[in-house]
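Reviewer 2 asked us to include a model.

Predict the structure of this chain.
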Amino acid sequence: MKERYLKTVDSDWYRQRLSGTLFCVLAAFLILLSRLYYLQIIRGAEFRQLSENNCVRFQSVTAARGLIFDRKGVLVVDNRPSFNVSIVLEDAKDPKQVVLKLAKFLKAAPVALLAKLDEAKGWPSFRPILLRRDLSRDAVAVIEAHKLDLPGIVITVEPMRYYVEGKRASHLIGYLSEISVEELKSGRFPDNRIGDFIGKFGVEKGCESYFHGERGRRHARVNALGQVTRILKTVEAVPGKNVYLTLDIGLQRKTEEMLAGKVGSAVAMDPSNGHILALVSSPAFDPNAFVGGMTYQAWNKLASNAFRPMENKAIQGQYPPGSTYKIITTIAGLEEGLFTEKTRYYCAGSYRYGNRTYRCWKRLGHGFVNPIDALVQSCDSFFFQVGEKLGVDRLARYAEASGLGEPTGIRLDNEAGGLVPSTQWKLKRVGRPWLGGDTLSVAIGQGYNLVTPIQMLSLVAAVANGGTRYKPLVVERIEVVDGSEVKIGEPIPLGRLPASDKTLHIVKKALVRAINNRAGTGWIARIPGMSVAGKTGTAQVVRMNHDKEQKPIEAIPYRFRDHAWFIAFAPAERPKIAVAVLIEHGGHGASTAGPIAREMIRTYMKNWGIEGLKNGKAHPIPEFFNP
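Predicted model (structure tokens):
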């Protein structure tokens, strides 16, 4: 009985133990099945995508930058293919060793390539790090031949900027440079990344938002070495918008030829709308040198050049205006009623003011001259007397109302404003009261006066068109790739010159005679058969002395030579072009700057096909301008 009871107890105990074990096994299987269900069913699609990403990679496709054309549709800035080499850290077992091997194959300094790795610290491991751009075809062939030894190294083809005209119009067009970390952090470039190039100067910078297209994407299957084996899908990039400049590239070429070997600037404008037809700053720089990245040594050499090739002298160079300023003095004198067209002042070759003698450029004097004769022959004594009567503050008001003393608003970087002096300015800036002799110097464009070539161009263009000052424009229109326009450069009036129609008529008459009368200082710039109007200017760098006048320009040290000015427009009765030329230390405006202005006008008018200039027939000068 006892044995039977014990057997029953043992049987129950084993049954309980077996049931417990089976329950545990069943529970484990249930947990496993639920986990499998969760992974395979609930999150199956997500993990499937992650699995595919181990062999499928999303690659960014750089958008082609918008092109640049001149006003007639001539291509001046293009894009060309560039072979770039990058490394994907995820695919490179030992990135440093891979880069060292790459440097050996490319025969390049490893330090520069390794520095790229350091700059990209913290980047996602799957994102390519650009090591070098614009490889030669031979370099690409070497990398392809050793691709098994270079895991993680990829070669891509991207569009790279190509400046078709080289140095030509470089100060207007500008250049590209690699985006900085600070610029990326600023939030102004949300679609850019390290290694991208953006506009840093000129139109390239001013129109950056238009030039920059939309990136594309490419889904590529890669192998264990990170090398693309198949393109699965491509989302095409959207190119940037094309920009059409107001520039006439033919005129630009001719102007740059004329300024070759000289330091200075020449600018041209359509007086009817403010469109810039040519903008030259000499010497120039080659924007192609910036595209692939410039070395410190190359940049330092460019930046330390004594003739300042990186300065846009057309809008940043500030110079005394010399006798070109006499246009302002004439307008002020006529408008204030100090004289009329027939009023005459006597020039004996000098003018005595206080205890000092102020000499006219013509030692023997001009005799009796009226306002027109004074402008034609650029008589200093006449304007000394006018300046004395006006006073500097009245002169300053007319100069400022004519656009001097402030930037013109041209859409280019770092435009200077020049300087219009006044009694308050001198007291505040120099700490001394204004003297009457200072006014005499200002009246002929010397002394504290400072202007830029673009300001003087705007002034003479306003005289040409009847008094309207236009904002200088460098972009005529912007187009999408399909040809639809998104922006047009409409004329932007800034105001009028402080002169009546009668006053402007007198000034224009004088400017025509200054070119077409043998006694005029601009006789050298005349064009047979065309009514050119203009004014010369010689801006002193150091105070005039007798020795300086007697010496030929070649005998005077370069830094002490006068600056040469010439401003002009044509045809006088229906102006189509206005020009301003400034040659640093060029001597006399007529002999140095005048021929450049003449050829600029001649070139542009030939392009227009002006009747009488092409076929040799006379283009009569209007009777009321006739000398």
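The chain has two domains: 59-112+131-218, 249-285+312-625. Residues 611-620 have pLDDT under 50 and may be disordered. We have added this to the supplementary material.
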